[in-house]
Amino acid sequence: xxxxxxxxxxxxxxxxxxxxxxxxxxxGYDSAxxxxxxxxxxxxxxxxxxxAELEKMVNHEVFHSNYGIAHTRWATHxxxxxxxAHPHLDNSGDISIVHNGIIENYSVLKTKLLSDGxxxxxxxxxxxxxxxxxxxxxxxxxxxxxxxxxxxxVDGTFGLLVLSKREPEKLIAARRGSPLLLGVGNGEYLVASxxxxxxxxxxxxxxxxxxxxxxxxxxxxxxKTIENEDTEPIIEEIEFDLEHIxxxxxxxxxLKEIFEQPDxxxxxxxxxxxxxxxxxxxxxxxxxxEQLRNTDRIIITACGTSWHSGLVAExxxxxxxxxxxxxxxxxxxxxxxPIINKNDIVFAISQSGETADTxxxxxxxxxxxxxxxxxxxxxxxxxxxxxxxxxxxxAGPEIGVASTKAFTSQLTVFTLIALLIGRMRNLxxxxxxxxxxxxxxxxxxxxxxxxxxxxxxxxANIYSKVRNFLYLGRGYNFPVALxxxxxxxxxxxxxxxxxxAAEMKHGPIALIDENMPVVIIATKDEIYDKVFSNxxxxxxxxxxxxxxxxxxxxxxxxxxxxxxxxPETLPVLTPLLSVIPLQLLAYYVALDLNxxxxxxxxxxxxxxxx
Length: 610
Ligand code: M6R
Known about the structure:
The protein has 610 residues and is of the alpha/beta class. The chain has an 8-stranded antiparallel sheet with strand order 3-2-4-1-10-9-11-14, covered by helices on one side. It has a 6-stranded antiparallel sheet with strand order 5-6-7-8-12-13, covered by helices on one side. Strands 18-17-19-20-21 form a 5-stranded parallel sheet, sandwiched between helices.
């Protein structure tokens, strides 16, 4: 969603800010803006639309200043337009702020400020905060204290960056519930909401904690709490390199990330899988190993694609570990008064580690006394820090808004967790070895599927103009059907629904005619014959069948219009393979429709509002 970048150092600032905004474009936004303090004047330029538009306007000015702030906005309060874009100024025009998050009590604050004679240009909650800070500054003439006092009155979330003409050569950042980090370079500092925006300049970062305020000047930085207490900041190193956030010869990040999966899956199990012992070692779970051994119930909570991987995990953990699992949308969990029993363990899954609904669910579960474990990609993210323990999936930065490699890495990690718990309970060493060995073969099996990209592209081109798709799967492949449908609708805007194949006859079958493509995952497992019958039901109604089947399955050609073959594997590992053609199918449909694949309309990479 929104992105923040700020710089203070020895280089001309405008280029660095625009660069930082471009690095965060993948997060999703609708407008962008910049404030630069130069010759005792704040220059604020902001524009609805792409960063490239803003860049053209910024390039018309001559900036020699070496500090400033910038923002990409994803509208929450007020339309996406030039006025509502950030930065926002206080009434004196001397204080400029950019803000991620939501000020929940903005309307109460606004009413009070209006009655005190202050005025507003935009519809945003952020301008209210700017004016509020300015109103306090008028009385106490100290910017840091004004921000601190204002933030104590604020309900909601913020990642905040402030520039003030009254106290130049200084930036002030603050965080509560919306990520912000300080990049510590050589004679320069960057503040950003996303590590991708600073990595070109430094890998040394300090992740701000909730309720911390950081004041940065050319000479250094200090971090205190909103209550003005000292803190002990820890400098950490960003784990990825610049090349990881560039396209590396692919047309889109999504395609690059699909093709990275043999490696990212390998990274997810490398050093963790003990093939000879048929077991797993997961350092991040050592602290809760006894609780995992003895748990009676696991609750998994997540959103979107991460929720789909939770559904696969339900099948995995119940079958390998014999523990009952419930999977719940994080947004529902929070507001449902969920029952948490003494030995329950909650897993929260999130690629970004910043999803507001998932964070809220974690807080709810913790409040009820549960142990909460995180399955997260982004190191140092809020969810990684809020959870009691957990496992990083190590997929590297995922830039495409449509999640692909994070999904398969999450599945890999959950397979390891299911094995770990299973081996502590009833799963035999022999069974463990068989699964562990098969996991090591998955990357090559994915390479085999990726080689069929041209064939999948041909199929995509045949169906790219239809308006509806149906995706069917059973067992482990039911969540994969949901994921395939989500991928297609996200990036191609074609309506798609995923269903358990057997549920089709209870409703969706009414939709089927010669115009309806039905993607069916029909891999060789114990329910293959049942799925085959579902295919025949579609065929009888003239639906077009795109089957995902195992290599060597000739019978399926008799009924399917198209077959994409994937190698055989153990049923528990099938989703790791069956999802790959669905990702490619969605990609090539969207490509044929000329859609903005990496930045689909209305979507944000990390959804930091509830
Ligand atoms: O970062 P998270 O995994 O918490 O994000 C959850 C969803 O917002 C995310 O999976 C979303 O559905 C993706 N755009 C799916 O491609």
